[in-house]
Amino acid sequence: MANHPSASKRHRQSLKRQARNKAVKTRIKNVVKAVRQALAEKNADTAAIALKNASSVLDRAASKKVIHWKKAGRCIARLQTAINKMAPAEA
Hints:
91 residues, mainly alpha, 3 helices, 0% strand, Methane Monooxygenase Hydroxylase, Chain G, domain 1, 86% helix
């Protein structure tokens, strides 16, 4: 345990941030999983809607520095590419 009041405060703050970041990362995993599940079911419309939601969550996490902004962009781009590959197969 910390010996100084300022160190105790820093520890409390780090625990709050850790919990908040964990919640955001869990949400990211869930929305990305929803897009991948729609892709697995070959449902382009659902996948597109899920991707819109996922890109919003990813961009928000990147703006808050929970994840790196390039990681967010890379994840969005890969999901979009997968949706684009699936769309011509149905058309």
